[in-house]
Amino acid sequence: MDAPTATPSFDRHAVVNRFGVAVPLADPDGEREQQLLDDLIELQARESLIEARRARTIEQLRALTERRVAATAAARSASSGADSADARRGATWTPRFTARRELATELATLLRESERTAETRIAHAELLGAQLSETADALERAVITPRHAQLIIDRACDLPAETRAEFERLALSAAERMGVGPFARRLRRLRELMHPEPIEQRAETASAERWVAVEPAADAMAYLTAYLPAVDAVAIHDRVNDIARHLAGDGETRTAAQRRADVFTALLVAGEVPGGSCDAFGCDGAASSPGTSGDSGRVPLGHGIRPRVSITVPALTLLARAGVDVPADARAAHLEGYGPIDDETAARWAARAPSFRRILTDPHTGAVLSVGRERYAVPADLAAALRVRDDTCRFPGCVRAASVCELDHTVDWAHGGETSADNLAHLCRSHHQLKHRTSWSVKHLGAGRLEWTSPRTRVHVTEPPGFDDPPRVRSTARKATEARPVRSRERRDDGSPPPRPRRQFGPRAPLPDEPPF
After folding, report:
1. Per the confidence metrics, is the pTM higher than 0.70?
2. In the chain, is it the N or the C terminus that has fewer CB atoms within a 10 Å radius of its CB?
3. Residues 367, 369, 370, 371: what is their CA dihedral angle, to the nearest 10 degrees?
């Protein structure tokens, strides 16, 4: 008698092929993932709608409050007249000021938040209603997120009213395709290029506001923050990074972040970095005097390490300083890891540079013209050109500097990919591994644009920082050699000074730079 055969289990999501293997008809888990992703998109859209309606409601409250307070003040003045005390108080407590203070305190107590936060809500709601109506509309339609809208408001506040409409148009175009991190960098770049006051004058004024401050933190720690010219800040950061890299080696247990913090402290407190020498770590100590740390003839670590500041200075910029007429929309100098800087600073640092690397670029688009090399290893000139082009990691939303990223062949060399500008892009270590170990895919669209496709087939396009820059405002009001007194910061419409540059405390890198990620 034959043994009874087992009854095969029935799976309504699969069929058995001719090899006896169950082949899925559908992916219930995948469908559920897609549904959850769609739910997140809907929730974010609701959040945008709520923020837009909140701003509109606050703006309506402001208008009604000002109207009521103004009517009350007019009636009081008509019925009793204004004595000298009222006149003195009226210099500050105008109907507009009174209404805003009244509404701010009302909102602060109602929403259980600080009065400063309430005042900011009122000011931003008024700006959205009066001058950034397209941003308010895009927020209500969930085309942009609340964070994108807040970034537009913050940067628009730094621009004169007459330039805000064009700024808003360009900002909204970028907001629809950029994550928050790259979008913030894009807006800073737009603001620098579109501001009607030449960047040379703004840099001089802002430099007069430089400061250093300590902010207490928990657990016997504190933040030391400096507001400095961008080139100086980048130079300091680069020197600290270089010294910290030299300290890495066998037996070193500190993380890269800890080494950087220790180097920073040692340089400022003691003037040198203990625990090594330039002889031991291969620094260039020839230009330095022998060390005095008890090891005769050895140079303390850090004395031979100079900061590397990478500034892209278009040839047209240098020609303009030499008196040659150049197009008014010639591209601005670019500080790697920051963005546009003034021509005077760029030319001054270029004059101090011990050497130059020539990178041929289109003077109007900034695109690399030619670097063709037939080999896997990326030539130094091509790598430098791509670092200028990319500026950051090119994965959507990542803003890690290109200088600490890796160059990736978009189409693998083993699969026929070329070592060319159209097949290379910077990726941080984490996203480089992500590209090769997950279902994310990427392709070049030309002009440095990358199209990323997520495992769930959602498409994201990233662009180089200067992909669609507007024409810059060039300084024609004065020559570089003319002296100009430093002006105080411009005051607001209500006469109050603008706030000091906001300090941002805490680690800013979005991802760790050492494994595990």
Report:
1. no
2. N
3. -30
